[in-house]
Amino acid sequence: MTHAAAGPISQILSAASAAAGAEDAPAVAQTLADLPPGSPGAVDALLDASLVPDEPAFFAALAASVQLPFDPTPAVPHDPSPRSILPARLALRHRILATRPDLAPLTLLTYDPFDLEARQMAGQTFDEPFTWKLAPRSFIMEALRDSYGVGAARFDELVSGKADAEPDALRQEVTVLEDNEEATIMSFVNQIFSEAIRERATDIHIEPLENDLRIRYRVDGSLNEVAVPPNVRVLQNALVSRLKIMAHLDIAERRLPQDGRINLELDGRRYDVRIATIPSVNGESVSLRLLGRERLDLSGLGMDDHLEARIRSLLALPNGIILVTGPTGCGKSSTLYTFLRELNTRERRIVTIEDPVENKLDGVVQIAVKPEINLTFAAGLRSILRGDPNVIMVGEMRDLETTEIAIRGALTGHLVFSTLHTNDAVGGISRLLDMGIEPFLIASSVRAFLAQRLVRRLCPACRQPAPPELYPRQYLESLGFPPDRKGSILVPAGCRDCRGTGYRGRMAIIEVCAITPEMQDLITARAPASAMRAKAIAEGMIPMREYGWAKVAAGETTIDEVIAVTAAGEQIT
Ligand SMILES: [Zn+2]
Fold first, then answer.
1. Most buried pick, 474, 490, 520, 539, via CB within 10 A?
2. Is the dihedral angle over the CA atoms 354, 355, 361, 363 positive or is it negative?
3. Closest CA to 152 of 134, 140, 135
C-alpha cells in the first residue's frame, strides 16, 4: 500500500516534501495514498499532517515542478481589492486570491496547483486572460482573511457536513440545534458583531437572496459586502433565530416585521443594538443598528476656529432654540449629543426625548417616545417642561404641536435643541413658517439654524496628491473651488489601514445661520429665502460647500465627497 497507487501528483508532492526537509518519506507516501483517487486536497493533507517543515521551500519546489511562477510573499494591492475582483464565496471556497498588482494583468494566487475545480471556476468567472501564481498556504489564508474580513475558520466549522443538506427543508421550520451547534452559532453571531465593531460599522444587514445569504456592514456611510462563506445559507434560520432570541422577539413569527433591542456584551464592553426583522420572499432579513457608534466630540469634529467659536457662543446661551437641519443620516443627532456632552455638568439638568435613544449620556434623563402608549414628542416635552430642566433635547420637530411647546419652553427660559428635516440652514426658517408658526415666534425664540452633512475623511496613511489633469482649472472655477489651492487637493488610494477604501471615518461640514436682530426683521417681514441667505452670509455664515472646500484644501476630504453632499450656492430649496 505505498507507491503502487501513487500517480504523478503524488510523485511531485513527495519530491517537494523531501526538498522542504520532510524526513518521514513513508508517512508522506501514506498520507497521499490514503486520499481517495482523484480527490483534491493533497496539498492540504500534507500540510495538515505537519509533514512539511519548511513551507516556502515546499511551495518553491512544487512551483518548479509544475512550472508556475512562485512568490513567497506576493504583493496584494488594496486597489483594486481582491474583494472587488472575485466575490467572497468563490475566493473562500477555492482559496484563491485575485490580484492586479500595478495594473498588470489579472493574477490568481493559489497554493494548490492541482485544484481542477478552482481552475474551472476561474475559466468561467473571468472574461479576461489571467495567470496563475503559487504562494504559500499560510500566506494565502492570511491574505484572504485580511481581504475578506472573515472569521473563515468558524464558517468552515459550521457549514461542514451541511453542504448537502436540503436548504429548503431547513428553511421551512425553525431549525432545532444540538447543544454544541447552538454554542457554535452563538460564537458565529459574536464573530459577526465583533468583526463589525472592528470595522467601525454602524449597521449590519443580513439579507437572504434567492440562492445565497448576504451579510453587509455599513462603514462610514457606505455598504460593504462581507464574509459570504460558501453554504452559509444553510445556517440562515439558525442565525436569524439566534438574533431574535437575543432580542426577545417571537422566533415562530416569521411573516410579520418585528423590532427590538439587543444588549450586547462583547470583550467587556456593552453595546446597544437595535434589531428589525423584515419578511421577504427569500426569508427573513435582519437589520442591526449599532447605536452610538459614531462619536463626534467638539474638537474631534475638526471644526475651524471660526466655526468652533460660533458654536461655543451658541452653547453658552441661557435660553432659546438651536436647530440642526439636514437629511436623514447626516449626523444631526451625533452633533446634538456632542453639544449635550459639552453642556453636561453637575449644575445643569438635562432632559431629552428621543426616537430612539441612540446614545446613553451619564447624568442625563433620557426618554424614548412610545406612540403606542401616547408618549409622543409633544406629550413627553410637556411633562419635561413641568420638571423645569435647564437644557432640553427634542429628537425632532416633526409637528406643529411639538414645535409650539418647544418655543414656549425656549421663551420661558430653557435652552432647547432639536432637529429639522431641511436642506440648508435658511431652509429651516421656511420650514417652521410652513408648519404654521408665527414669524415673530420664530424670530424671538430661535437663536440659530445649523445645517450639516457628513463627508468621509481621507485615510491619512494613503491619501496622495491628485494628478494635475484630474481637476482642470475651469472645472474647479465652476465649482467655486479656489483654483490657487488646486495643488493641495488630495485623492484616496487605499491601504491596509482603511481596508482599501481610501477613507477612514467621517466628519461634519456645517453652516451656521445665527438669528441676529437684522435676521429677525427679515423673518418677521417674511422675506424670501434668498434674501435671508444673503444676509446670513453677509453676517458671517460660511456656506457648507465653501466650508467643504476649505476641508479639501486642508487635505482632509475630497472634491467628490463635498459635491456629493452639498448643493451649489445658487440652488436654494
Ligand atoms: Zn488608507
1. 490
2. positive
3. 140
Residue type, 567: A
Q: How far, in Å, from the CA of 137 to the mean position of ligand 1? A: 26
Q: Give the span between the Cα atoms of 93 and 118, in whole angstroms.
A: 9
CA of 445 to the centre of ligand 1 (A): 45
**pTM of this structure:** 0.64
Which residue from 214, 359, 381 is spatially nearest to 272, judged by alpha carbons? 359
Q: Check: CB of residue 560 under 8 Å from CB of residue 460.
A: no
CA 272 from chain centre, in angstroms, equals: 16
Q: How far is the CA of 564 from the centre of ligand 1 (A)?
A: 21
Which of these ranges, 77-81, 226-230, 261-265, 488-492, has the smallest mean pLDDT? Answer: 226-230
> 96: which residues sit within 8 A by CB, 6+ positions away?
86, 90, 108, 109, 110, 118, 121, 122
From 118-122, 146-150, 502-506, 527-531, the region with the lowest mean pLDDT: 146-150
pLDDT digits (tens, 9 = 90+) for 449-491: 999 999 999 999 999 999 989 999 999 999 999 999 999 999 9
| Residue 265 main-chain phi, psi, to 5 deg | -120, 125
pLDDT at 153: 45
CA–CA separation, 262 and 279 (whole Å): 19
Cα(493) to ligand 1 centroid in Å equals 6
